[in-house]
Please model this.
Amino acid sequence: MADKKYIGAIDQGTTSTRFILFDHGGQIAASHQVEHKQYFPQAGWVEHDAMEIWKNTQKVVSETLKKVGASADEIASIGITNQRETTVVWDRETGKPYYNAIVWQDTRTSSIIEKLAENGDKDCFRTRVGLPLATYFSGPKLKWILENVPEAAAAARSGRALFGTMDTWVVWWLTGGPDGGAHVTDVTNASRTMLMNINTLEWDDEMLKVMEVPASMLPEIRPSSDPGLYGNTLEDGPLGGKIPVAGILGDQQAALFGQTCFSPGEAKSTYGTGGFLLLNTDTEAVQSKHGLLTTVGYKIGDQPAVYALEGSIAVAGSLVQWFRDNLQMIREAPEINVLAEQVEDNGGIYIVPAFSGLFAPYWNSSARGVIAGLTHYVTKAHLARAVLEATGYQVAELIEAMEKDSGVKLSELKVDGGMVASELLMQFQADILNTKVIRPEVTETTALGAAYAAGLAVGFWTSQEDLRHNWKVGKTWDPQMEDRKRVKLMKGWKKAVQRTMEWVE
Model:
């Protein structure tokens, strides 16, 4: 590996695709990012053009290489991280999708969920797959495509259709596409489909029957860091050479890995489009009794899988986008901090962003957003502060549930994602949790986690201990809020959440 300078990571996210080159110290050498279009054909429906995303992937790769002047010979391996539950079905011979990719936020499968719930019990498959029945996951989205897109259904019956989440889509094209591309996924993404058995880490025949999915559509499930490699990039592809593709991690598991949360009880919270809190539970798949998800954290080669408890928030950073684009109270997202800092508190208001229902710990798809506590006193500065605080409250509820499930009191919280740039939010998070919040020096932990997985597979890094040495503290926030105020604020938040419930009849 002495002649290899970099590991490349493709970060295929909800709003954009990035390619980042990391050096041996886990520092960013170069990166490039391109946004893709969001499609909203009906209320609650969210779609992406998978071909646009593949074109953008090629563009960000080539632009990043230009910035640093790197060649394929200098890149040891490629890792992929991705928006996890977003679902695409395509033709194995042409590569053409039969329908737009259905995004993880999409709620069109609510009627499917209601029909599948045995006697209304949405936890009826939880012991098998680790997940409640919810519109969030890939399996119901795939079922919807097969029920509503005749061409896809016919191709699935004939064995011509392929299914994948976005990691599978990108790897298939990187390694050849219709000309022998690898049709694979890793255990973390497979654990979000409702189709993989959480204990055996294999596609579950019973769940395939429930969702009416032909096994021929499904990718091969592989480790997150795979010394056997998924395949190599094409010499005439965007990377311009044969480079091993050896790491795949769903975005939130990638952040867990990038934050080096390798020990049981270590946790991280990612503040992106949504919010995601993961707690390492070691090799035990802990079944939650408080609304969390049981998911695979990562799997390194032939080592046992490491599991995690996860709390998922549908709306975090996207609430800031809503405040900017829909209410037009700010022009650029960072301006929300300047506005929010004009007031000392939220003026008694709470914004609960249940735009597509509530995720963990409630899992209520009939909830809708509210602004509670409005008075004549409230200004747009109070609204701005309430927007930021909404994410802090939601994370606090997740940690409350996590501590009940695990029996472990969190001593500190590692944070990452775009919203950690908000000093106000990070201080509020420490205050409302009464826990130290730590931001790492390198905040692009999602892409870094994918790079680490790929690098371990090919010996660029020799051990997970190497990765721990790379992790460095960027900034720490200590709690400063009085206990009485903290209790009062959380009580108000929970009251506001109750106002959102059962809005859709």
About this structure: The mean pLDDT is 93. The longest strand covers residues 28-35.
